[in-house]
Write a structure and sequence with these properties.
The complex is a heterodimer of chains A (569) and B (173). Chain A is of the alpha/beta class. Chain A has three domains: 2-176, 3-Layer(aba) Sandwich (Rossmann fold), CATH 3.40.50; 200-361, TPP-binding domain (Rossmann fold), CATH 3.40.50; 375-551, Rossmann fold (3-Layer(aba) Sandwich), CATH 3.40.50.970. Chain B has four helices and nine strands. The chains are: A alpha/beta (569), B alpha+beta (173).
């Protein structure tokens, strides 16, 4: 509000860029990530006159991943500004990532002036063309007067229904043009009417199936977190006694310490979780999309089960797995409606007992090797040292799976990872965004040495803002997951996956005026973690771990989820 | 299996690109597309003939189309009572001697000859795809120089069959 008041005083005549700023402020935006350039000079000039907080990363990719981390933790849309051409194309990976993981982003890209669009002008790229398949929707502003309507629609589309990224491309001559506009109060989008309320007949059908089920299981995805359904889910589970498994992105939606929680399912999920999905006679999917990394070979997935699928996106239902009870609605509203319908819990003691046995007898496991630190131990230590309350942001690869396995979450919105697109380089900038969304939390960026080197230029942001992000490099001097697959499926030929030549990360951190530590033993780890995780300063900890370690257990590609390898004997 | 899918979309630049891009991204096979304005200026109708593997794939196509913000409504109208037409132009080799002969072929199809030159003539025919295919096959022996099809456009008939009016299947009749 203060920002708005000040802003209105300073603007005499409004340019398109001023209108844009006004609209952002009206939408409640207080933080934008961006990188200036030729085609957004008018926008940055207008930004200069506002109180909007702007975060300048050192690469556009850093801006968009930070916005993703911010959106994941705050639940608010991440706002990004990039210039035309290369500025926009540098944002592409993050836009695709947000699309896959349903994160609300509103991305503004500069465009060359209308008069030269289509002439291969300097820094011109067909941004709407490029981003059409990887956005929920996109716009190119055609006239100054369209800005308030389009921006309002963009925020509406990005944040409602199944969230996703929306790109708004703004030609430079429009953002510099002076004119008068009307700010619309309402939105008119006849082609976009997401459905939130469940069909009660379907809910009753599901309640009936729950009464009759002998081997029910709930698969809880990120939809639980997006819709704020975690409390409702807990109540449903406690009243019905049905066991729960999570997807990778759903972690935190259900408390990991709960006795009915079986762990994460999927390629590197727990034995108990995967067997529950395999053996179930009723599979209740709430807000997950049956990704191939979860289901394994579809021939063997939930073949014995009546499948109920609750999803706000109708296109997800029946896409990969045949569904018997489809419910297109918001997860929270559906669970609440379900709570009104369910009565006595089903008689499933035998089933629950068996799954609990599986969980106890075949837990996640690893062997400690002499002299080298196990990466799993490192994650367990992080959990212990932060009482399981930190926000954990990961990159992609082995360390990501270990973090998912060995850092159990009790609460939602503590876990940020790139699941669908699997974007290396995501972790560190996303941690910056997460820290900005939750300034008082401990944010740990668990990254691999490979992925960290893709976006480590963002250390400048920590240096500049003194954000207390704790960077933990799980350093095995290789692209661990690639190496693991080459070991397991490509005859041990480690083609281009070993990267022993790397910077001295400790000195690197120091050049950015950030404390750096190298840790090689468990004792050193304990010492450094206790000394650095609890203060409000950034730190980089280069943890040398056993480079031979593999992520287990595993559903090998092309096999069913019941055929796990590397299960505890 | 072939399905006829029709959609009402916002009449804006880029919408065709969104729709065809979506189809190629999700590996749907398009046989034909026709697009044109409707009675409302800012709304266009698109009609697709798609080749899908099964009903589930067709359902997925419709859902994905429906997800597009610029797509207002989508129907699979294959199984409804519909009027479906396409327009085809066929340039056939002909000399003055066989013009009358071709005229005789074209007539029953209620097609018309719209251009004549020294060594060819152009036939215009409208109708459903079967009729059009039949005429093309009849003209093929004369030598088709060029052929242009608009692709099918269609919508449901004003009056749909009521369920009660449908004849039950019978092995005897």
């Amino acid at each position: 509000m203060q920002a708005k008041a000040k802003y209105e005083q300073t603007v005499a005549s409004q340019t398109g860029a001023d209108v844009l700023m006004q609209t952002l402020i009206d939408e409640g935006v207080d933080l934008v990530f961006g990188y200036p350039g030729g085609a957004v000079l008018p926008i940055y000039d207008a930004l200069y006159k506002t109180d909007l907080r702007h975060i300048l990363p050192r690469h556009e990719q850093g801006a968009i991943h930070a916005a993703e981390g911010y959106a994941r933790i705050s639940g608010k849309p991440g706002v990004v500004i990039g210039t035309s051409g290369p500025g926009a194309t540098n944002l592409i990976t993050g836009i695709a990532d947000a699309m896959m993981d349903s994160l609300p982003l509103v991305v503004f890209t500069g465009q060359v002036a209308r008069g030269v669009i289509g002439t291969d002008a300097f820094q011109e790229a067909d941004v709407t063309g490029i981003t059409t398949p990887i956005t929920k929707h996109n716009y190119q502003i055609q006239e100054l007067k369209d800005i308030p309507r389009v921006v309002k629609e963009a925020f509406h589309i990005a944040t409602t229904g199944r969230p996703g990224p929306v790109v708004v491309d703004i030609p430079k001559d429009i953002s510099g043009e002076i004119g008068e506009v009307d700010y619309p109060e309402t939105i008119h989008l006849p082609g976009y009417q997401p459905n939130y309320m469940p069909n009660l007949l379907q809910v009753r059908k599901l309640a009936e199936a729950m009464r009759e089920a002998k081997r029910p299981v709930i698969l809880a995805g990120a939809g639980i977190i997006h819709s704020g359904a975690h409390k409702a889910l807990l109540e449903l589970v406690e009243r019905q006694g049905i066991p729960v498994v999570h997807t990778l992105l759903g972690l935190g939606g259900f408390p990991a310490e709960h006795e009915l929680f079986l762990g994460m399912a999927g390629m590197h999920g727990t034995y108990a979780a995967n067997m529950a999905l395999y053996e179930a006679d009723l599979l209740i999917n709430i807000g997950a999309r049956f990704d191939d990394r979860l289901t394994g070979d579809l021939q063997h997935f939930a073949k014995k089960a009546v499948v109920a699928h609750i999803d706000i996106d109708p296109a997800e239902i029946g896409k990969n797995v045949q569904t018997h009870i489809p419910i297109v609605a918001d997860a929270k509203f559906t669970i609440e409606a379900l709570l009104d319908e369910v009565t006595t819990p089903p008689e499933i003691n035998e089933w629950v007992f068996r799954l609990k046995q599986d969980r106890i007898e075949k837990p996640l496991w690893y062997r400690k090797q002499p002299k080298v630190m196990a990466p799993q131990y490192l994650i367990e230590k992080l959990h212990q040292e932060t009482n399981g309350e930190a926000i954990v942001v990961t990159d992609v690869g082995q360390h990501q799976m270990w973090a998912a396995q060995y850092y159990p979450f009790s609460k939602p919105k503590k876990w940020v990872t790139s699941g669908g697109l699997g974007t290396m380089g995501f972790g560190f900038p996303a941690a910056i965004g997460a820290q900005l969304a939750a300034p008082d939390d401990t944010v740990i960026a668990v990254v691999g040495d490979g992925g960290f080197q893709m976006t480590l230029q963002e250390l400048s942001v920590l240096q500049e803002l003194r954000l207390p992000v704790k960077i933990v490099i799980v350093n095995n001097q290789s692209l661990g997951m690639v190496r693991q697959w080459q070991t397991s499926f490509y005859g041990g030929r480690h083609s281009q996956s070993l990267i022993p030549v790397q910077p001295d990360f400790v000195k690197l951190a120091e050049t950015y005026d950030i404390r750096g530590y190298r840790v090689e033993t468990e004792e050193e780890l304990q010492e450094v973690l206790s000394a650095t995780l609890h203060d409000r300063e950034p730190v980089l900890i280069d943890c040398r771990v056993n480079a031979e370690e593999m992520v287990t257990p595993m559903v090998a590609p092309g096999t069913g989820i019941h055929e796990m390898i590397g299960v505890k004997p | 299996m072939k399905r006829i899918v029709t959609a009402l979309v916002n009449n804006q630049s880029g919408v065709l690109n969104r729709v065809t891009g979506l189809m190629s991204k999700r590996r749907f096979n398009i046989e034909s597309i026709s697009v044109g304005r409707t009675e409302t200026d800012d709304i266009s109708r698109m009609t697709f003939v798609v080749d899908v593997e099964d009903e589930a794939q067709c359902e997925q196509l419709i859902k994905q189309l429906h997800k597009q913000i610029d797509v207002l409504k989508v129907w699979d109208i294959t199984d409804q009572a519909i009027v479906a037409r396409e327009l085809v132009l066929i340039k056939v080799l002909s000399n003055p001697q066989i013009r009358t002969e071709i005229n005789g072929i074209v007539d029953p199809f209620r097609a018309s000859i719209i251009d004549v030159s020294r060594d060819s003539l152009t036939v215009q025919v409208t109708g459903d795809s079967e009729k059009v295919d039949a005429l093309i096959e009849l003209l093929r022996p004369y030598g088709i120089k060029e052929l242009a099809r608009t692709g099918l456009t269609a919508f449901p008939r004003g009056q749909q069959r009521q369920v009660t009016e449908m004849k039950p299947y019978s092995l005897i009749k």
